[in-house]
Amino acid sequence: MRRRTPPPPAPLPQRHGVDPVRVRLPFDGTWSTVREHLVARLTGAGPGTVEAMFDAGLFVGADGRAVAPDAPYRPGMFVWFHRELPAETPVPFPLELVHRDEHIVVADKPHFLATTPRGSHVAQTALARLRDELGIPALTAAHRLDRLTAGLVLFTVRPEERGAYQTLFRDRRVRKEYEAVAPYDPALVLPRTVRSRIVKERGVQAARETEGAPNAVTRVELAEHRGGLGRYRLLPETGQTHQLRVHLNALGVPILGDPLYPEVTGPVPPGDFRRPLQLLARELEFTDPVTGARHAFTSRRTLRAWSCPADWDAARRP
User: Rounded CA gap, 169 and 175, in Å?
Assistant: First the structure.
């Protein structure tokens, strides 16, 4: 078995908080040049794009020098380049800093801002913004929040410590508390602990509950209610995709502003930020695995459907 060689450090700096793309040339293949392989591999770049990038010297090797268009193919060689960033509508809400030390950063993420680059959301993500604003290129996310969910996210400063913080979430040693606004049902008996099996299939937007051993557990409490709405306190023990949204929907009280539950609606036009999902990651508590300090963080955000119901109603889409 061939031993995996760790990649050398990136010779290109980040751009707008986004890492350069790293490509490793396969050990088997019939390509004669690096250019020939990348033209075949990067088909999504568009006709002539790879050739133009070679001519401009935008592909570089581990030494930081531009790879020549006629450079021979070398199995296992690393090549870096910056991909063209997609056009993104800026998320016009502040990304607030809750805590920063030499080990971690805790941010209070707004609705509509993705946690990490993925798909069409690259520079308009919490990670890219924080790297750029704080000047910490090595910053990484210890966990993720859905793009539509607001609230607390933990980031790690030192790459060698990331695993220790990720393990906190994997081993369920982080106390997480969420808040949601949803319809009030006087017949719904709360508090209760919801247990079910949730599956999320690739290419399908909504997750679903199915038969089988439970893999998703949520404590659901009603904090208060008024005007036909309830403010719910959610304490997840697990972290399945869309878990809180699926569980409240299954209880008959889907979260306000949810475009997937109880039914998938049409896509919201870019720049329409009027009615965000009324779900907030309000509290994070854990013992720091590096320093041993006990941390307890609280979001300063509020859910508009509860704090300003008139504004929420006024923003209702036709």
Answer: 9
Predicted confidence (pLDDT) per residue in 129-146, tens digit: 999 999 999 999 999 999
- Closest to 143 in 3D by CA, of 101, 120, 171: 171
Residue 294, beta-bridge partner list = 287
Asked if the peptide bond before residue 117 counts as cis, ω within 30 degrees of 0, the response is no
Question: Whole-angstrom Cα distance, residue 196 to residue 244?
Answer: 11
What are the tokens at 209? 């509950």
Q: Give pLDDT tens digits for 180-192.
A: 999 999 999 999 9
User: Where do we find the tokens 């990348």?
Assistant: 38
Extract the tokens encoding 22. Answer: 């790293």
Max Cα separation, the chain?
A: 72
3-state SS assignment for residue 176 = strand
The residue count for the chain:
318
Q: Kind and range of the H or E element at 295?
A: strand 294-298
In the chain, what is the straight-line distance between the N-terminal and C-terminal CA atoms, in Å? 61
3-class state of residue 159 by DSSP:
helix
What CA–CA distance (Å, rounded) separates 26 from 180?
48
Among residues 274, 257, 268, the alpha carbon closest in space to that of 92 is found at 274
What amino acid occupies position 75? P
CA distance 201 to 206: 8
pTM, two decimal places: 0.88
